[in-house]
Predict the structure of MOSC domain-containing protein.
Amino acid sequence: LKIRYQDFKMQETPATVWKDTFTAYTTTDDADDWFSRVLGQRVELLFSGEQSNRVREKLGQNVSFADGYPVLVISQASLDELNRRSSELPSMDQFRTNLVVSDTKPFEDDSWKRIRIGEVEF
């Protein structure tokens, strides 16, 4: 599947994430058909773009389709410790993280308020 921004229909449509309804925009019929076929039910691929108005008040910034935070961080040490304690062996994918950090103590990342990567601070 290939889609191009210039082909997006950009029709306003309501989207809801965790009981938070906001305006999203339609993309293409081809994308909708492809995802519907893969998922086995009728769905639409939506776009939030710069026009998105979903802002998390606690953060004071736009988070589009994210659960509540635009960046999710976990440490490898935390996952390793969870695996040590559990017979279920969770994988990193289950946490839907964007960034995995190393060289930390287990769960040290739970208290972080900011993280810096090079010159960029999150």
Strands lie at 12-17, 20-26, 46-47, 55-56, 61-62, 73-75, 99-101, 116-117, 120-121. The CA atoms of residues 20 and 54 lie 8 Å apart.
